[in-house]
Amino acid sequence: MDIITLDVSELAPPEPMTLILSHLAQLSSQQCLQVKHRRQPYPLYEKLNSAGFAYHCVVHSQDDITLYIYHSTAQQAFESVFDLGE
Questions:
Q1: What's the CA angle centered on 27, arms 78 and 73, to 5 degrees?
Q2: Which domains are assigned to the chain?
């Protein structure tokens, strides 16, 4: 699984959502979008579920998270590449 990295942690709303959705439009089923963000993008989660994407969020601190987004059909590939240990 190829990783595409994106840092939206310094952007003001709605730029993070716009940029993430733009990248997802180009994401293949063999890719994962790794997003550095400063907070949980709750409005994005519903859009991801509706569009057939899955995600995994790692909270490093209150203002530092890493969000992994991938096609739902790639769940097994994602799990085989990442041991994110909950």
A1: 40
A2: 2-76 (3.30.110)
72: which 2 tokens? 């739902």
Question: Is the per-residue pLDDT at 70 higher than 80?
Answer: yes
pLDDT tens per residue, range 31-45: 999 999 999 999 999
pLDDT at site 81:
84
Contact 27, 4 (CB under 8 A): yes
Which residue type sits at 2?
D
**Which string of DSSP letters, residue by residue, matches 29-54?**
TTEEEEEEESS--HHHHHHHHHTTEE
